[in-house]
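Instructor's aside before we start: the two examples that follow are unrelated to each other. I chose them only because their records fit on one page, so don't look for a connection. First example below.
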Amino acid sequence: MYISMNWIKDFVDLDGIDVEKLIYQFTMSTAEVEGITKYGEDTSGVIVAQILSVENVENSKKLHKLIVDTGKEKLQVICGAPNVKVGAKVAFAQVGSKVGGQEISQAMLAGQISNGMCLSEKELGIGDDHSGIIILEDDVKLGENIKNIIPIDDVVFEVDNKSLTNRPDLWGHYGIAREIAALTGRKLKPLEIEDLTLYRDLEALQVGVEADDENPLCLRYSAMRVENVTQKISSWKVKVRLFYCGMRSINLLADMTNYIMLELGQPMHAFDEKKVSCVNVKTLKEDTDFITLDSQTRKLDKGTLMIWNEKEPVGIAGVMGGLASEITNDTTSLFLESANFDAVAIRKTASKLDLRTDAAARYEKTLDPELTELAIARFIKILKEEDKDICVTSSFTDVYIKKYDHITIHIDKDYIDRSIGKELSMEEIITTLTNLEYKISVDGKNIVIEVPTFRATKDVSQRADIIEEIARIHGYDNIEPKTNLWKIAPVQKDATRELEYSLKELLASKYGMSEVHSYVWYNTELNNELGIEVRDNLKIVNGIVRLDNILRHEMAPTMLYAIHKNLKYMPECKVFEVGRTFDYHFDGKEADEYKVLGIGLSSLNQSDKELVYEAKSMIDSIVKMNKNMSVTYQNMEQVTENFMHPINSFEIILNDEIFGYISVVHPKVKDRINPKASIVVAELKVDKLGEMLKNEIHYQEITKYQTVNFDLSLVIDKDMRYENIEKIVKESNLKYLLEYHLIDIYENEEKLKGKKNITVRFKLGSYDKTLTKEEIDGDRETLIQNFAVHSISITM
């Protein structure tokens, strides 16, 4: 949101105050300022001039030769604007002046000398209009500095909208001015408003509101009728302020509604009174097509809150008006709406329609219903300044459905001092709260605080909120940090969180993996592009992107998205993420949520087999380091997802339970990413692993006697698993076996024909003595015999 300091100065006297320091103070106390723009700083020397004559330039279809009078001299100027005319007074950049930081110099155009430049709104930096030059009022003085006529000079700062989410009172300049008045100790000027009681004897408008007594969608609807609108264009002050704050000027009445919204934070809407003479606020009874002001036909669901005239809807409540009832340049009378709607209902409607408007952004913050009357009174006041001939032809019509509860907070000074950590004077406390428009009564050290309505909708409700108000205005940087005395107790560690951190560190440091962060829903466009078919699952209602609404059941597609995006720029891409997956039961009630590690490995230089073993090494390391357990693997009997390889997919088994899988990516999917690449994905259930108790680690002294290593090369069936070898070794019950491990696998179908050769290294030793040859040979022969019993031969 953009805030104009010129606008703020309408309500607070800032003479003698450094504006940039003030904006910094605002950041530290109220809301984050993202940037500052100084308008007009790079423009100088632009004056008022009058066109005395207009001639077409020979051999040019659009250029005109003008003679302009600056009040001191008459100059020839070449201009291509279509709206030049004799007698018009214009914004003229004379030679030597600066516009947007560029110095204006004498130029040769179409063989003619041009001694300056007649400016458009866009060139002067006060608007987007570049269709013609600025035509000024007839009563302006020749040679007058344009900055005395158009308020070009301004300092505008941008406030981060997220930091205003819980401050609905700050979505307008007057609310910001209130904060600045409190920060500077200056007085906040009251708003100049129209006295609406002057019109109480006029006829009331027809306004009806359909409302649920407990949860009304429309909390308040206020309206007035204005006729005899003769002016069509807003003053320069209004147009420039709107532009600097991110809005474009449309016409006087549309500009006025936007101006009040930016000033007070209260959205308003003006209907053409010829098309809307009465209003009913009610929901749609069936799905309906509706054309909004942006000329888009939108499909509205049954139950959407709408503004109706006698027979049809004319606006989506709190979001956008309808095209059929819009204000045009021919409009002379208007039905003025100032309303308050339920914040949740407006947010749901705007999200469902993917229509984020300035009005909806404010309504969904829970505005104060008391603003509707103030906004109308302010609108009438400013409109009279812009167009003196207007006539108010109705009384203030008001349907007030729901008022927020009045909030009173009791607090004592000692509690304030303890909470802030600094003793403040009672005078400072009262002054701070009074400047923020709280009503205060004091009885000794006890303070009774009445919360103003614009802070009572959801912002201030308890003593802690009052502490924050006082502390931030006093200045957090003025509070000296002090060490408090607390009873220290150890924090119980979360096993799953510890596991998550451990595996992230392992994958990043040992394996050089890159962590990614993604959305928890599938990307429909990428699924289609990569040929990934996903099962139906829990869906997001009103997703940001309509098609991307299925919550993921597997992490692997997310890993493939990252690989698809990055593998084209590098020879390998290895990524991981600990994210959430969902399993919907399709009963309308239950859905299980899991924390899962997703791994994606891709390479142009490594084979599928190498990547599978790399993934296996990662899973083994994670489980061994964190649970001191060994993992086994088995082929999937049947793959469940189309991106999995039908043969090279393996389940991760721990304590006879499935904890995840490792799978080569199916060639049909892989080829769409890169046909030359090898790609493997893996998943591990982190929360399930975190629930398991860690096996106790047993330490054993290293023998001081000499040990012996020997290798056995075993010829086994191609499909035999290594865990079968481990079982045979365990059953052999060798007396002197210290350890053993696999060191090599040899496969050659042509030579071994359905077999493979594995080499296992055994280490024998004793803690009491050096083994004799007979003892070593005894254990070795026992092993060989047991392997023979299981039809495993030994090669020498």
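Example two begins here.
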Amino acid sequence: MTTIDDFNFRNRKALIRVDFNVPLNEKYEVTDETRINAAVPTLKKILDEGGSTILMSHLGRPKEGPTEKYSLKHIIPNLSDKLGVQVKFASDCIGEEALDMARNLGSGEVLLLENVRFYKEEEKGDEEFSRKLAILGDIYVNDAFGTAHRAHASTTIVAKFFNDKCAGYVMKQELENAKKVLDDAEKPFTAIMGGAKVSDKILIIERLLGVADNIIIGGGMSYTFAKAKGGKIGKSLLEADKMELTKELEKKAKEKGVKLILPVDTVIADDFSNDAKTQTVKSGQIPDDWQGLDIGPESIKLFSEILKDSKTILWNGPMGVFEFPTFAKGTDAIANAVVKATEGGAFSLIGGGDSASAINNLGYGDKVSYVSTGGGALLEYMEGKVLPGVAALEEEKSL
């Protein structure tokens, strides 16, 4: 794949799809700059070479056109500070204002366009809308791995209008690190799969059965495994229609010589609340009116021992309801174990979403090998699916 290292950007106007879908508080202040920080090396490379950058992104999921809380203008102070230049802002992503500002943009300058999802045409992958975006620049750069699995206008269709197109550093690193884990993992390779639903992780677990040595199962989906084995799970999360599938996954793992490791104990609560009464019980022994909300201390010990001896680690999904401090101990402990293994020479890839939030909230972002910015996109890539945003960079100009 062509990357920004294959081009010199002197006097070029780079139209760049970035992923600035960042969380804002009630004062519209950015509360997590991870995605902004990730884009900085790509932008600085282009600016330092004498190019100018026109930035496209979405923010949130606006339902009916322009909405104050989803405006990208709120990130201007953060972005200007990171880049050391005053970022200009177009109050629309297409039209005369955006076109005039793009035309008059000088070398080393940055123009941020308003949220592309203020137009329904963005998510529909509309060609005419894509054309109106494409005329703003003379080279297209996609650095938004987090949306590469969507065939939207700014992530995929716009690329059809360009001869010169390439991947930015985020996109390049995301793909390289995913490939390293899938195709070139140093053994033992341990994958930690957490989160609420088995159905969200079926395909990636099946893919990992071909490459991993250990697959640790935690989070809400572990209760479906426990129930399928005849255990009692009380009011815990259950996908009843996936119980047979969990048996099949365990059978396949056994056939392939892969260890599928489940929690041996669980922290249970009498209510879905941070202030609920809690106790720790063995897995499969949860009383009727209680629910499992985290892995227990014996599971933490078991999982940590496996991670200590691993040379490659993939982590996707929390071990419990980590939004509640009372039930974050399992997720925090796994984060600590991954950091220790990394310090001992392991390669660790944190697979976006909640796992990335957990690592970053603990201040461990620079203590693991790589934190992915794309949860859904990474999962789909690892499942073996073609990502439209990646494929579009490899195709010839067609519009």
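The chain has a mean pLDDT of 95.
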